[in-house]
Amino acid sequence: MTAREPTVDSARALAALRELRELTGNEHGAQRVAFTETWAAAREWLVGRLDEIDGVSIARDPAGNLWATAPGSGPRTVVIGGHIDSVPDGGWLDGALGTLAGLEVLRALAPEPRQLGVTLVDWADEEGARFGRSLFGSSAAAGTLDPEAVRALTDRDGTTLEQALHDQGLELDRAAEARDRLRDVAAYLELHIEQGPVLEAAGLPLAVVLGTFGVQRHVVRFTGAHAHAGATPMDRRHDAFLAAARSALAFRDDALARDDVRATTGSVRVAPGIVTAFNGTCQITLDQRALHAAVLAEMLDAARAASERIAAEEGCEVAWERVWEIEPIPFDAELIELADEVIRGLAGESRRLPSGPLHDAAEMARRLPTVMLFVKSLGGVSHTAAEDTPPQDIELAVRALHKLARRVLAWAQDR
Amino acid sequence: MTAREPTVDSARALAALRELRELTGNEHGAQRVAFTETWAAAREWLVGRLDEIDGVSIARDPAGNLWATAPGSGPRTVVIGGHIDSVPDGGWLDGALGTLAGLEVLRALAPEPRQLGVTLVDWADEEGARFGRSLFGSSAAAGTLDPEAVRALTDRDGTTLEQALHDQGLELDRAAEARDRLRDVAAYLELHIEQGPVLEAAGLPLAVVLGTFGVQRHVVRFTGAHAHAGATPMDRRHDAFLAAARSALAFRDDALARDDVRATTGSVRVAPGIVTAFNGTCQITLDQRALHAAVLAEMLDAARAASERIAAEEGCEVAWERVWEIEPIPFDAELIELADEVIRGLAGESRRLPSGPLHDAAEMARRLPTVMLFVKSLGGVSHTAAEDTPPQDIELAVRALHKLARRVLAWAQDR
User: Fold this and answer.
1) 3-state class (DSSP) for residue B145
2) Confidence (pTM)
3) Which residue of B has its CA nearest to A275?
């Protein structure tokens, strides 16, 4: 008798994703905004699915995260995560793919005798769409959530985050107790759509994620002197917009010359901003991202130096103000190797990518050996009803998560 | 007995400018917006000054322009123009210098027997500050005002231009009758502040103006595709802002390589314009100016070609829409020579400049031999309370206008 290859019901995961889309979306997209009725309905549906699996214990932690564990013979467990919450008018796969693929992996692994347990976590409010604070549940579990920093956050109707939690039977001051859930966790795994164009362009279905980018975010303000478009000769101008334009191009050129980094000028505001005058002030934003802290620091130094040189050449002043920063969070090197092997086995070729957006895995990577899988996004779009991935790639991704979970269970058992 | 050099009381002109500033300005600047009570008060004060001069006839035409003539022995006359109206919070000299210098020249010339008359005109609503239509009175006199194009213009309170004229005892449908005033006019002269930095930088008080720039004004819209600042690699972006930034720099470089032209990117609007995405659309304005129509056409062709090349390189589309244009209006070559000689005689050195802003003289140049004098502006600023010119230069400019008027009267008599 030949040993049969263990399998996961990937078609069932795809069907569940479609069922959830029917239940909680409309023609504008997914409407599972955290701590709303639609989100609570999605959670209730999810609990019903988990209840079908024999031997799985289900619990909600004080931060609103939902945990479902198929226990092993020992206390330790491997956690697979996702988030069923979405942005308003969001995509059907962003977050939900991770949770529902994890559900099927849990269903497949639950009956097998193992030393380590297998746990699915559905994180609360990954998106932060309603209160502007993303990674709520995973940061509570990682111990990086400061209740005082979020207590007064309000939604557009003036409801506070604290009240919205209360309406869901949760108390903000107890959210930190979610940390207890990470005791005895051996590793964290997450499957997510790429939300970018790289895999589609490469003709590949799957990638292993190297970590999440560090971010340096600044407002850069150029000051010259505005004057009349007709009266002032070209060589006597102090045009703040042109100084900013040259600087934005220099920021881009620096990023193009490096591997796998980003530099984005997103907001651009000029004054006076009228057709008959050149501009005396121009304020832009610069968002820089890199996977290595040293590279990110180099990029920032280079951008400051370029802006100062250009401002001087244009007879302008420049001032920098930091508005946000986060350090790069690399994933576990050994788990990256395992994931790479799993992808090569299933898809023939793997790709290693940094993650541009943040994910709950970034919070977990602060505490645990962590790795993520990306599956191709069509058109590179996300956070819109147009978000999509071919069904065969969704099913392949579920199979990859199942294989990776088995490899990581074995890896953790030996440690 | 030696012939005494005829003189003008330039100190009286300076004193009158200061008196008008006291009467119709405040700490924010001049408030003589056309067709308002303050403007009407300034006009009443001006009529009082004109009434002091023996033998001068005063009349208002149906477009609201004020005419004061010291007649000659024949029907022909030389006109000196200015405008006492200002923008809100405007400068004390913009327009008023021309009118009050002309008043003193009229006072000086009125007693002298001459074949040609001398006429001062104070134009109505040169600035267009209230209704957005500049050169109202002079365009009515030149025959280029279309009543239907301005009838429905409103100020910020919803008052129509037609109603505002009515409140001043004027009827829009009769404004074209102002054309009768240009019958028998031999030449038109105007003194104005430069409103730019060239004379101050050159250390010169006075310039002769070659004409007013032609203008080509366009909206240029770049379309790429916006996406997330983290998810999209640098080499896969279609960043509309960067395409616009490169194009604006190309427009500037083209203008820098030519003599005495302008190219200005004034309005800049990006979408989505948020810190975490690069931009899918960027709409800029381009205002191009040159004194020669062929040069202006070359500049426009070069700008279009540059924007199309850059847009293609950046994976974007570009579309151009003309929002306004006016042809260059050159002043009279013989009068330019006379003015140059007058300035050299008074200041030692002259300068020939194009005018960036439009002036009433541009409307007159369509119909009559016309020339303008510029006097230095400190800091190149205008349309603000900070607008200024040294008193000795103001007085020198009044003397130059007087000498030029005498030269032009003699020139016109011989034609």
Assistant:
1) coil
2) 0.85
3) B266
